[in-house]
Specification:
Length: 203
């Protein structure tokens, strides 16, 4: 019987987690779910995909006026939806995809959401200076701007993960493998993860 493969990838911002996930997907011929999760969650909830994208990996309240792009005062203007509802819809989307077949999930606390299933949980990290260089090069920001942006994004990710999982984002004991992508590069990191997964029987 063919093995059911599920890989969850947590990542520091700017560490190349998305690139590693793409390389893994190509090598293993497994779909990678990132923004696709937002689309599926939006479809299941009835809210717009743009709303889910705006609130992605953030823990906060959103007014219904913002949900539907309303510019006028309405009976919904003072109503709000808690971030826990968004997490619920996204969690259902992740579990539904995981039950259907092989998948690689990028972020969004998927390691916690699928904790009752056999998965390879990986965390991609890199020294701050390397992440600053990557973000600065791809965005055109100065190094100072890139560092501030990275720290802001990471705080949001940590707050999101810690709130919904009651755990600690980026702590090594949460994962099967933690890898510094600056050591082997994107492609080499993907190869290393595959070798590790096969040695452990998780791939």
């Amino acid at each position: 019987m063919e093995k059911h493969i599920l890989i969850n990838i947590g990542r520091q911002f700017g560490a190349g987690g998305k690139g590693v996930a793409a390389a893994l997907g190509e090598r293993l011929d497994i779909p990678v779910y990132d923004n696709e999760l937002l689309q599926k969650a939006a479809e299941e909830s009835g809210f717009s995909p743009a709303f889910f994208k705006k609130s992605d990996e953030r823990r906060r309240l959103w007014r219904f006026g913002n949900l539907f792009g309303l510019n006028r005062v309405s009976s919904y203007a003072t109503s709000a939806i808690d971030g826990t509802e968004l997490f619920k819809y996204q969690s259902e989307a992740i579990r539904d995809i995981a039950r259907q077949g092989n998948a690689i999930f990028l972020g969004r606390a998927s390691d916690y959401i699928l904790r009752d299933m056999e998965c390879l949980d990986v965390f991609i990290c890199a020294p701050l200076k390397d992440r600053v260089s990557r973000v600065s090069e791809r965005s055109g920001m100065s190094r100072e701007e890139a560092e501030k942006y990275i720290l802001k994004k990471e705080k949001a990710r940590a707050d999101y993960y810690n709130f919904f999982t009651f755990g600690n984002w980026g702590v090594a004991s949460n994962y099967d493998l933690c890898v510094d992508s600056s050591m082997l590069g994107i492609e080499g990191t993907a190869d290393f993860i595959i070798d590790f997964g096969r040695r452990t029987g998780l791939l």
